[in-house]
Write a structure and sequence with these properties.
binds zinc ion; metal-binding (chains A, B, C, D); 6 strands; 4 helices; EC 3.5.4.5 (chains A, B, C, D); about 150 residues; zinc ion binding (chains A, B, C, D); alpha+beta; Cytidine deaminase (chains A, B, C, D); about 20% strand; homotetramer; identical protein binding (chains A, B, C, D); Cytidine Deaminase, domain 2
Chain lengths: ~150, ~150, ~150, ~150
């Protein structure tokens, strides 16, 4: 898997993306987990949509920062994503997105970069393709179906 | 249950809310259900956040218009909601929000109005309290727990 | 709304259902909420399927006791439900099912009874129709759609 | 990533697991996607729990075959999983589990084998660790949190 430490790099685009992910984290509604997450999603048109986790007393109704960013983009007419930056309060190491968020992003293509950012702005870069191998995608629903299976 | 046909009323606030719900519907990403939904959420601070449904090839990862609007508001720092307007393409009658959306809204209080709007802008008004009786709310997690149950 | 205190009643069927709901609660995987829930679902064919909540470190992936019972029944070929009993550790009053569970049950018909049971086996009875008014059901997906809306 | 074509192998344990996954698929409640999935989960205690997808008119309330199998096991007191076999009607190639199912399994440990099976009983083997790299796990919730972030 292609990993890359991103640190001290000079891209203004990335720095803005990271900054917005940190800011978004401060909006987290997480009275149950106390685990704040922020995300910033860059579209191929150059727009940035941010998100935080929004929890619910009925835990399954909670949603993640990454998905908040995605639905904001889609409801604004943007469905083509280039990069997402994700951060939490975890001090050491890099916290990966949950499987649901990987799947939500995969709806819109596997060719995007995922930056995991620490609170002190260190980052590691992955691709969505790396993080969701053998992904279930919209194409899977279109594939020919067998009319029988082995047990019949 | 307190219901009210809302038609030909003059509130500019409501008319704007309904208009934005209709517009939001056009952003729906629903290649699987072909069932477009739009929502517009009014906060007590007077802001409006809109949402559409955003589906996923893995159906459980789909989300609804109402929840899209809620997470947009929360990630913008708004957690106090006054009214939500919801519309779909269903021509006759009024389509209620799914149970998940009622629960998502309930996290932020049961005292809000829910307007179900038809494509030709007729509406019916409910309260969230009406639509989610005996609601499970954040308070339920705080209640004293029994140390034993009958089977012990 | 039709409510009924069920206490000291003599139905063996209900007593077995309640007993199994209490027992199911003890299987709850809830290291995050510490909020145990048990459910027991009676099919129209007379079978009982039990469930507990199963939480996940990524909170949105958690699921509820009621839905656990439903998927157990469906994966066993049973889709027609008569009654469900739900219990938690909350000592005083009756805790309602979350909106998601009401919606999950509604897929299979609104004419079922929901018994909320306290740890000391007191119960209150509702119908699903009561608890999910103006329900979104499979029929809603079949209704005629408007080809235009007001904003066009 | 460690992949392995599993074909013509002789393990009775695996053959039973695969057979039960095929059978489980026939229970799928999928009137919306028409995409049947079956799963069979082997615990470290040697029990097999099967599951199918159970969809809902409100698509987000749908659940997957793999998660059905997991909650059945957990509600039966089993939380240690060894292998899962997953099959659908897709004729060519191997269909991966959705991100949500990978996450649901990850709650109970990353060291399990995932067998993707075709309708004609060909299989490919992965590990959960392979399919959910940089997984978000229960340990992530325990890690020390930074008291500040870069933007403060
Ligand atoms: Zn997530
Ligand atoms: Zn909904
Ligand atoms: Zn529930
Ligand atoms: Zn899945």
């Amino acid at each position: 898997m292609d990993k890359q430490i991103v640190n001290g790099f000079s891209s203004n685009e990335l720095q803005e993306l990271f900054h917005k992910a940190h800011l978004a984290k401060h909006r987290a509604h997480c009275p149950y987990s106390q685990f704040r997450v922020g995300a910033a999603l860059l579209t191929t048109t150059g727009k940035i949509y941010t998100g935080c986790n929004v929890e619910n007393a009925a835990y399954p109704l909670s949603t993640c920062a990454e998905r908040t960013a995605v639905v904001k983009a889609v409801s604004d007419g943007e469905k083509s994503f280039k990069k997402i930056a994700i951060t939490s309060d975890v001090e050491i190491g890099f916290t990966g997105p949950c499987g649901s968020c990987r799947q939500t992003l995969a709806e819109f293509g596997l060719d995007m970069d995922i930056y995991l950012i620490s609170p002190n702005n260190e980052a590691k870069m992955y691709t969505l393709r790396d993080l969701l191998p053998i992904a279930f995608t919209p194409q899977d629903l279109q594939k020919p179906r067998a009319s029988h299976d082995i047990i019949l």
